[in-house]
Amino acid sequence: MWRYREMLPLIHDENRVSFGEGMTPIISWSNLASRYGLENLMIKDEGINPTGSFKARGLSMAVSKAKELGVKSCVIPTAGNAGGAMSAYCAQAAMKATVVMPKNTPRMFKEECEMYGAELILFDGLIDECGHYAAEIASKTGAFNMSTLKEPYRLEGKKTMGYEIAEQLNWTLPDVIFYPTGGGTGLIGIWKAFHEMIELGWIAPEKLPIMIAVQSSICAPVYDIFNGRDNVKKYSMSVANGLSVPKAFGIDMIINVLNESKGSVATVSEHNILQGVAEIGAAEGMLIAPEGAAIWEALKAMIKEGLVSRKEKIMLLNTGNGFKYMENFPR
Ligand SMILES: Cc1ncc(COP(=O)(O)O)c(C=O)c1O
Questions:
Q1: Which end of the chain has fewer CB atoms at under 10 Å, N or C?
Q2: DSSP code per residue over 132-198
Q3: Structural domain of residue 61, as residue ranges?
Q4: Residue of minimum CA distance from atom 5 in ligand 1
Q5: For residue 126, what is the domain's CATH number?
């Protein structure tokens, strides 16, 4: 992703903390595409990033900038993937990492942080409560708070997905992009990149993709707010851990992207998410994160309802690798 360094807020290259993240492949699922009659299905596979998810982009950027600013210690609330990524990048940068994670997160996410030398704090609640605790730690210890959108740099790393999509499609864009949405940085970052590229004259402004945010039906605050319902429900932990975000700090920005792109929010049941993981595994030989399976299921439902056409250029952002979630999968 650092090929876009002129567009990233790092001043000196020597501060870069990187494992070679980004420029992930766009692949086709030809077996599934022909099963469902999809003419133009593309999957950008973020699961092959270092530490197994797109979170690597944001944390490569943010830890690099922290290093440049002389930060010695970082703290992050996480649903799993971001915590592992921050721990790894902090290890490379020789910084102290503190990770606050829901107790019910699959074991691999926890062990990974510890293997990277981070201090792991488990919390009996969802990521919003972990966020309050991380903020307390930051104010008591002076650690840099890496919480989603409370610092400006993770978004900058994640926006590189938008640059790559355009570059890989020869400076054109898909008709519709499906993104699994928790805190929303991926969605907001991609949209930011599209606007920057319009300003640069790299892409035409006429036709930006429709952005579809996808959530689990048991934790769908963006869906509720987008549809004019108050965000007061009790939400639960999804098997797609990254979607278990009951309160997105960047909700206004998420809604703005959806409105500007004429997009919408889809929800998927827990049952269908797990079914999607199994279907993709058996048909395409890829064990993807349940967050990625959620968008596949949302696409199928929207095709069935006639909300997306089989002819459209459809891009699914598979945000993560399924290996860390094994205990969430029934076998
Ligand atoms: C695999 C995966 N997909 C999607 C998300 C949601 O990302 P965002 O918070 O950028 O909306 C997460 C967040 O933890 C995740 O780990």
A1: C
A2: HHHHHHHHHH--EE--TTTSSHHHHHHTHHHHHHHHHTTS---SEEEEE-SS-HHHHHHHHHHHHHH
A3: 55-150
A4: 242
A5: 3.40.50.1100
